[in-house]
Design a protein that fits this description.
Layout (H helix, E strand, L loop, with lengths): L10 H34 L18 H8 L1 H34 L5 H14 L6 H10 L6 H25 L3 H9 L4 H12 L1 H16 L3 H6 L8 H4 L12 H25 L11
Length: about 280
């Protein structure tokens, strides 16, 4: 099949190609601005003495952050979010590591079908559709209005995807590594800890960041399962920052949102610099 070439001797074709390229660049710039404006607002509004719903050069002040730290509910919610995120992320990573290793090494009939079914149901059955049975389950086992119940639900909801991603990393580890360790007398736990985990660290890092981002921003699960305002995470509390007239307190909201986004950004930068991000195993046999 012959490719279509632009005749450089034809001035009309050259002009059309130039206009087409300019139009493509303008379209890309507009799309970039569409996504950049909210980020610019997040960076400028917290330092503005009178923030609005527009991006403008701020009248610099730190009083907005002072208002956040003087609000006891805001500080408590950030601490609650940190506890939920760290514990639930740890549960997801540890559980996915053990289960992914087992699924990778043990020949279970219908193993791949099981993984695809878990992925399918976790994608199709949304959190909203499962809230009633989830609430009844947590209520029956006595974990309503506790962080433990929230952690269990968040961990269970993210495990199928974490397993699907991590199993590919586990498959990439040559069995000869494990066989050599077993010949030297290493147990299965030692093989997993000393041989497999160091090799699949990029996969664990991907899962950790993915889980942390989802848990950090989850609103529905803690809102349904927690009854006490003192237990609410930041994703729930931020919806309660209104002034006496019922309008959002943008000074408090902007500063709180800025602080709220820092842990996730820092973790992403650290993991990306240390391990990088990829969704497949990195060793070839």
């Amino acid at each position: 099949m012959s490719s279509i070439r632009i005749d450089e001797t034809d001035p009309m074709a050259t002009v059309k190609a130039l206009l087409s390229r300019i139009g493509l660049y303008l379209f890309a710039v507009l799309i970039g601005l569409f996504f950049a404006v909210p980020m610019l607002w997040l960076l400028t509004a917290p330092f503005d003495a009178s923030p609005g719903l527009n991006v403008a050069w701020p009248s610099f002040t730190l009083d907005n952050f002072k208002g956040v730290f003087e609000n006891p509910r805001a500080v408590t919610s950030l601490r609650n979010s940190l506890v939920l995120a760290v514990v639930a992320t740890g549960c997801v990573v540890v559980s996915a590591a053990f289960a992914g290793y087992a699924l990778s090494r043990v020949r279970i009939p219908g193993r791949n079908l099981l993984l695809y079914m878990l992925m399918l149901f976790s994608a199709v059955v949304s959190g909203t559709a499962t809230m009633v049975p989830t609430f009844l389950l947590i209520y029956e086992i006595g974990l309503i209005n506790t962080h433990t119940g929230v952690v269990l639900i968040l961990t269970g909801g993210m495990l199928p995807t974490a397993l699907f991603i991590l199993k590919d990393f586990m498959d990439s580890v040559p069995r000869s590594y494990e066989e050599s360790a077993q010949v030297a007398g290493a147990s299965s736990i030692q093989v997993l800890k000393d041989i497999v985990v160091p090799v699949v660290r990029p996969g664990l890092a991907v899962i950790a960041v993915w889980a942390l981002v989802n848990i950090w921003g989850d609103f529905l699960t803690p809102f349904i399962l927690l009854r006490s305002a003192d237990l609410y995470p930041a994703a729930v509390v931020i919806y309660n920052f209104y002034d006496e007239t019922g309008r959002p307190d943008l000074s408090l909201v902007s500063a709180f949102a800025f602080l709220y986004s820092i842990p996730v950004v820092l973790m992403y930068l650290f993991v990306n610099a240390r391990y990088g991000f990829r969704f497949h195993g990195g060793i070839k046999r």
